[in-house]
Request: fold
Amino acid sequence: MSDEILDDPQFVPTRERFWRMGLTDERFAQHRIAVAEYDGELIGIAQSASPTDADATWSQQLNVLYVLASAHGTGAGPGLLDAVISQSEAAALWVAHPNPRAQAFYRKHGFVPDGSSQEEYGITEIRMVRRKLAV
Reply:
């Protein structure tokens, strides 16, 4: 996201409402949310839901996966991904382009670009999809 969006004084209260609703509102009961902690501190969060893309052929869509940079390489990212999307499910996600670190992470976990792109918040995103993995 751009600095303009992140610096908006309403950004944090808006995100707090988003997560409060996602965790408590019955309309979102089917969403999967997981957090990663280290020494009692939140270091990562992930959320998936049913796909919203009209051409979806997958059962889950990863909407959020963030891990603090200081926690990269700890296993938090793969753990969060596995917590919200089973390897036995086909899945998709949208990732900023370019974002080579994130795209490499998703490739390592079976996702490949499918040629689709979109722009959101002034950022170009590409869609990556994963077929069911053998477990």
